[in-house]
Design brief:
The protein has 210 residues and is of the alpha+beta class. It folds into 3 domains: 77 residues, Orthogonal Bundle (Arc Repressor Mutant, subunit A); 70 residues, Arc Repressor Mutant, subunit A (Orthogonal Bundle); 44 residues. It is 50% helix and 13% strand. It has 10 helices and 8 strands. Helix 9 crosses helix 10. It is globular and about 60 Å long.
Length: 210
C-alpha cells in the first residue's frame, strides 16, 4: 500500500509519465505497472505513440474532451480514432479534415480515410472539400442540413508566417507531399490548413507531382 501511495504521489507531481518511468520508481515489472494504470483509470496519450499516461483527475478537459500538457495530447474519449469519431458525431454540421486536424493537433487525412473506409464515418463533398458526418441516417441529415445553411465555405488563406514556414519546409523536404509539409508546419505551432497549403503550392508551381 505504501509503495502504491508513493508512486501515485510522484505520478501527480510529474503530471505525465511513461511505463518505463513508473517502473523505475519502485521494483515493479512492466506488467504490474500496466495493471496499476488500468486500475487507476489512467488516460493514455493519443500522440507520441501512446507512451504517456496521466491520472484521471489531473486533466482539465475542454468542451471537446481534449487536454494538452507540454505537447502531449489526451482525450477523454480515448484513442485518436475514437476521438475523431466522437467529435464528428457531436458536431452540429459535420467536420472537415482541417477542422479536426486543428482541434486534435494531428494530421487527420490518413486517419479519416481509414475511418470512412471502415464505415465509421460518412464522407461527402461540400463546397469543394470533404466533410465528415455521422453514419447514422437522422444525424447525417441534420448535420448536412446545418452545413448547407452556412452557405459556401470561403477558401482557406495562409498567413504570411505559415506561407514562409511552408516554403522553408518545402526546401528542406522537396519530396514531401503537402500533407507532410502542413504537418511539419503545424508541429511548429503555426496554424495551416492542408487545402490552403495545397492551393499555395499549386499557385506557385511547387506542388509535388504524382
Amino acid at each position: 500500500m505504501e509503495k502504491s501511495k508513493m508512486v501515485l504521489e510522484r505520478f501527480r507531481e510529474k503530471v505525465v509519465m511513461t511505463v518505463e518511468e513508473l517502473t523505475c520508481l519502485r521494483d515493479w515489472s512492466t506488467v504490474t505497472v500496466r495493471r496499476r494504470l488500468k486500475k487507476w483509470g489512467a488516460h493514455t496519450s493519443y500522440n507520441h505513440n501512446g507512451r504517456y499516461y496521466v491520472l484521471p483527475d489531473v486533466p482539465r478537459f475542454d468542451h471537446h474532451g481534449l487536454w494538452t500538457y507540454e505537447g502531449i495530447r489526451f482525450s477523454k474519449h480515448g484513442t485518436l480514432t475514437r476521438s475523431a469519431v466522437q467529435l464528428v458525431e457531436s458536431s452540429e454540421a459535420g467536420m472537415s479534415a482541417s477542422e479536426l486536424s486543428n482541434l486534435l493537433g494531428y494530421e487527420m487525412h490518413p486517419v479519416l480515410s481509414r475511418l470512412t473506409g471502415s464505415g465509421a464515418l460518412r464522407r461527402e463533398r461540400y463546397s469543394g472539400r470533404n466533410i465528415y458526418y455521422s453514419t447514422r441516417p437522422r444525424k447525417f441529415t441534420a448535420q448536412n442540413k446545418a452545413r448547407g445553411a452556412r452557405g459556401p465555405v470561403a477558401a482557406d488563406v495562409l498567413s504570411g508566417e505559415a506561407a514562409i514556414m511552408l516554403l522553408v519546409e518545402k526546401i528542406k523536404s522537396p519530396d514531401a507531399d503537402v500533407r507532410e509539409l502542413a504537418a511539419h508546419v503545424r508541429n511548429l505551432g503555426i496554424r495551416v490548413e492542408v487545402e490552403a497549403a495545397s492551393e499555395f503550392l499549386r499557385r506557385y508551381g511547387l506542388q509535388k507531382k504524382t
